Amino acid sequence: MTYFLQQSLNALQLGSIYALIALGYTMVYGILTMINFAHGDLFMVGAFITFMAAVYLGLPFVPTLLVSMVVVALLGVLIERVAYRPLRNAPRVSAVITALGIGLFLENFTLVFYPYPQHIPTLIENTTWNIGGVSISSLQIIIILLSIGLMIALDLIVRKTMVGMAMRAISWDKAIIPLMGVPLNLIVSATFALGTGLGAAAGTMYALAFPVIDPYMGILIGWKAFISAVVGGIGNIRGAMIGGFILGAVEIMVAAFMPSTYRDFVAFALLLVLLIFRPYGILGKPRPQKV
Amino acid sequence: MKKGTLLFGVLIIASMLLAACGGGAQANVIKVGVIAELTGDIPAVGASCKNAAELAVKEINDAGGIDIGGTKYTVELFVEDNAGKADQSASAASKLITQQNVVAIIGPNASRYAIPASEIAESSKVVLISPWSTNPKTTLKGDTTDPKQYVFRAAFIDPFQGRVVAKFALDNLGAKNAAVLYDVASDYNKGIAEFFKATFEENGGTVVAFETYTTGDKDFSAQLTKIKDTAPDVIFLPNYYSEVPLQIQQAHRLGIDVPFLGSDSWGSSELITLCGTDCEGFYFSTHYAADAATPVATKFIESYKTTYGVTPDDVAALTYDSFGLLWDALQAAGKVDRESVRTGMSMITNYEGVTGNMAFESGSGDPVKSAVILQVTGDKFVWFANAAP
Prior knowledge:
The structure holds two protein chains of two kinds.
Chain A (H helix, E strand, L loop, with lengths): L1 H31 L6 H17 L5 H24 L7 H22 L4 E2 L8 E4 L2 E4 H23 L1 H11 L11 H26 L2 E2 L3 H16 L4 H21 L5 H15 L14
Antiparallel strand pairs in A: 1-4, 2-3
Helix pairs in contact in A: 1-5, 1-7, 1-8, 1-9, 2-3, 2-4, 2-7, 2-8, 3-7, 5-6, 5-7, 6-7, 8-9, 9-10
Chain B lengths: L1 H24 L3 E8 L6 H20 L3 E3 L2 E11 L4 H13 L5 E3 L4 H14 L2 E4 L20 E3 L4 H14 L5 E7 L3 H16 L3 E8 L7 H9 L4 E3 L7 H10 L6 E3 L7 H6 L7 E4 L8 H14 L5 H20 L4 H9 L4 E3 L2 E5 L6 E2 L2 E7 L2 E8 L2
Parallel strand pairs in B: 1-3, 1-4, 4-5, 5-6, 7-8, 7-9, 9-10, 10-11
Antiparallel strand pairs in B: 2-3, 11-15, 12-13, 13-14, 15-16
Helix pairs in contact in B: 2-11, 3-4, 5-6, 11-12
């Protein structure tokens, strides 16, 4: 039982990171029906900004987190303005290729400055408690609570504010809504800022939990977060959160109760089966093709 | 557009002519290729390899060249980056062989890159010496036990290393139950983990957990929780220096408090930078100890320190030895061509290198040599024990 509880805690930590990154994919898709494949690399940039803020500026945890979120949010807005906006009415595949290109650019740009893996200093004094045989670290608690807090905040922004209402409206219809006075470009920028900002927060927390960072760290985790978004129903914000926690749980539990070599194979086979029965994801709905 | 194509064509022809001229004019030059992991996941390995290669070549050229069969030759070095990828290692080998026309290749270092590159070298009949690759497959033909004819290495092989670490765990640490966590997607880690398991169990120990992950993973919590549940006396992590710190830190966070053991992939000073104090007191097997060196090694360590300002790690020492083997082979053969390098290599019966004495026996590309066990102490690796072949 303690073994199961310990593994559940591990799953919750991994799942909350996946969920935070998955949100960035799903928000951009929801509003532009485009997959921002550079998102995993923006997560990586978030981890490196964390490194810079902590090492060169000597900032403590909360300012580091804020710096990382703000810088990466601005970078996300800039990328949208420079690279994606000119292609907004181009075929979708052009935008996807551009996104892959941006991702490669970010990786190699970081590689020029940091060819070696870097070590993140300790920002949160880590204490480990042992409760009935289950080891709980303060870092784990912070990551899980902060992720859930950020997700609740995002949910409130999207459902209760004017910006959120505009986002939902634009995701409903990109052609008609701007005619009613909703500033399309501004709302798209806000979406990118929110999505990439959350990705950066995930980057910061990931860097604290696994304090060795390198320019390629965003690739694998970016793919997994993208899969989480698809499983949850891409375009659906709550779906992305659920998808992230499901993928985290499946990965950890397969490794926990089967030979760990089977982990990815069993995890992705399960997700495939899920998509056969729910092709639009858990909370996704089919989008009728408008003519 | 047409003009551009024409210009391009002229440039290609001009460069081909230049290359052809170059080949004829530089009669007294030995061209040697290096394939190193300069970028990718283990760049510290590539950097050490390149540094040591440049040092070895500089020493020869500063002395006015190397004397082979009565003629002085200078050495020209071509360094290729394999970007930490198997396919780029193979294409770098092809490039060095067909375009740069090298007589021999040193590198790549990690087994997962050395194996594909060695296939190209073998089929092109060019000698390849991998400094750091320890997987047996590097010098074997396909899935057979026949040795490749043109592939050599300066390092010992994994069965030997796995045996050394397993014996050390049993005899020196008195361990009965061991756990292993390794990267199943990498030839090196997988090979050494299996050899460790075999030896440990043959000698009366039990491997209670044999867990895997894949390259790029950062979260090992599921596997480590499982390992914790089996209560091992010692945990063996035959993984690269960039991953080991994460594994040990996460283990400590889960409340695992047993000694960790490693293999020669730990032996980069980066390990201590990334690990902080988490790796303190743990042991790993490797090729040489900088603090218990022979006169040959001391000379190399001194000149490396003067040139680069750091103590050479095992990759640097093995790269330097690979070049030493190459010079010996060329001198033994007395001629500079690809086939003579091969003949010369098989004639080396005792080479006194930085990483100990080596001999190549019975047509095999694997040297017979010994290993050392080092302990992480403060910010240094300190000699702990010797292990004979």
